Structure formats: C-alpha cells, structure tokens
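Entry 0007
Protein: Galactose-1-phosphate uridylyltransferase
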Amino acid sequence: MNTPEFGSDAAAPSAQTLGAGVVKRTARLADGRELFYYDDPGTALGPERAVDARDLAPRPATATMRRDVLTGDWVSIAAARQNRAFLPPAELDPLAPQTPTNPSEIPSMYDVAVFENKSPSFGPALAGAPGEHLGGTLGEALVSTDPPRGLDDLDAPGLGRTRTSVGRCEVVCFSPAHSGSFGSLTPTRARTVIEAWADRTAALSALPGVEQVFPFENRGEAIGVTLPHPHGQIYAYPYITPRTATLLGSIEREGPDLFARILDFERADDRVILSGEHWTAFVPFAARWPIEVHLMPHRHVADLAETTAAERDELAPLYLRLLRGIDALYDSPTPYIAAWHQAPVHRGRDTVRLHLQLTSPRRAADKLKFLAGSEAAMGAWIGDIPPETSAARLRDAVASVPEETL
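Output (structure tokens):
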C-alpha cells in the first residue's frame, strides 16, 4: 500500500486549468475508478500525486432499478451500499489522504478531491445496447444487462418492470480535514469546490444515459450522515427525478417564466435572508421545513456549469455566510441537506432554473421535525414555523456572522 509521500510511486497526472486559477488533475484508483484532484489557486501542493497501489476487490455489479407502478417512480435496489463505512474513527477516515495505517480512498494529500463512489446507487455501467460490455478495463461486473431505452421507455406502463441502474455516483471531498462541512471552508476553498461542482456537472451531463445531475451535501448524524469528513456527493441519474418531474408539470401549468416571477415575488417580501449582485437567499412562501432556504441566481441558468466566473466568485462567500448564519441559530451545528436542483440534461433547459434548496428538520435547540403519517405517507405537509418568523430569525443569525471570517 502506497503512502501520500511523493517518490518513486508518484506521478504527475494530466492537468487542466479551470476558472479562478483552479487546476484539475485526473488520475485512477486501483480498481479503475476515476479520481480528480482540484487544486486551489496558489496551492502548496506540487504536481505529483501518489499512485493508488491497494489490492482492491472487483467493483460491485451495477444495481437494478424497479418501477413502482402506483407512482411511476423508479427505485434503485443497490445492496452493495450495505457495506459502506459507518462512523469510522478519525485514524480510519476513508476520505482522508492515505497513510501507512489508513488505506483510504485518496492516495495523496489534496485540496479538493472527487472520485467515483465504491458502492454506488447508480453505475458504474452506462447506457448502451442490452448486454453490451461497458466497463472497459474495469471488469465484467460493469455489464449493462437491460439499461433504460430513453425517457419514453421509462414512462411506459406495466407491472414488474426493471432496468439497470446506469449512471454515476461521485464523492466530493471538500478538504483533507477529518471533520467539518462546506460552511467551515475558507472562501478560496469554497470557490474551488464550486468550480469542481460546475466541472463535474458538465462532464456527467455528457455521459450516455444520464438525464439529470444532482450535487448535494448531507450534514449531521440527524440527517443520516455516516462520515463526519467534510464532503458532499453528486448523483447522475438515468431518469428525471420525481421532484423535477413535478416541477416541469408546474412550469407547464404556471408558465415558462415561473422562476423569474418567483424571484421577483420573493425579493419584494420580507422573507429575504441576504442578497448580492447575482444571488438572493430567501425562505420560500410555502416553506415545509422548520429551516428552509432557497438560494437562486438572478438570471436564468440551467445548472452550475452555465454560471459565470462572477456568479461563482460571489456565490462562495455568500453561501458561506448563509451556512454560518444557520449554524449561529443554536449552540451546536445544525443538521441540513443542501440540494442543488439543476435542469434535466435534455428537457426544460430554458425554463428550469438552477437553485439551492437547503432544509433542516431542526425546529428547536433540542427538537427535530420527524416525517410521520401525513408527510411520510400522504405527502401532505404541515409547517411548524411560519416562514416569516423563520426568515426573521435567520436574518438576525446571518447578520451576526463577522465579516472578517469570510
């Protein structure tokens, strides 16, 4: 097993300069999974990266998804995920740089690293002809036996329908630190992560069979987080997710300018939390969760890959201020899901606007909102806190974040 020390087992991966001076370096893990290093501008790291010399088992076969005929939803049955790490000690952190005693997933020291998930919900196989081997050098486990044959195929009726869960799941490591979250990053590191999100959104959107790309961060054990290491994930789905399908129906009902009108409506009210030249954060009019904030760009962009350098530059400190304000509500860190909703790859690009939906079940310092009968079984939500009250508390909390920390 190699170490993160640069030496005879080190190489200089192919490099590409992205926006804001971020440098992307491409490598492979021992089982063939892709690994990408995103170096901060002015990084102290050299160009070389240690080679992953672990002896790894073959990758699991791509999962199978089944269609729920009552809802039309596709459910991926990914049994390999049962084996994923669960709250390991810091010395066995699987997202830290490798050491002689910790054969982790990332061979070298890094600023930001992205790699294919070892136990994915979708992939590693991609769409192709039934029975076609799609794994290249990664092994026969990647054979796609019956992949989706387009969105019309996925929408077709019938009992007992199955398809291979083609696609891609990636892990985004925000920092080599053992604990933290996006909100604990420096503005420079936050900007590097945003550049990585945009780069991976573009790359994953180009993969065969991918219909939607979803970057997100789960934070806190109350949410179900099993690794305290600061990280997020990116899912590349082989279908349009149920929430986005509902959104497309809403746009058809309300009109193609729906997001522009929502932004104007919210910016004219007292639920705005903070606003810049390019972005506004607000508690939505019909917020479901005790803490719910949407962050939206002022112009129409379909996904993070379409944002400009100026928009990404402003997003880094503004998003940090929002997250640190949410943490300032209580004496302990607030659990949340930070979900970047992006337009599907092939539909709604001119009507579905990129936006962040940040939600937390925390309704008091020592209380959580649990989804019980009405919400979980019927999808009929009951809000515990008026959105205007939540917005006022969040504005005060955000205002308490010192400027010099950003």
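Curator remark: The mean pLDDT is 92. The longest helix spans residues 187-205.
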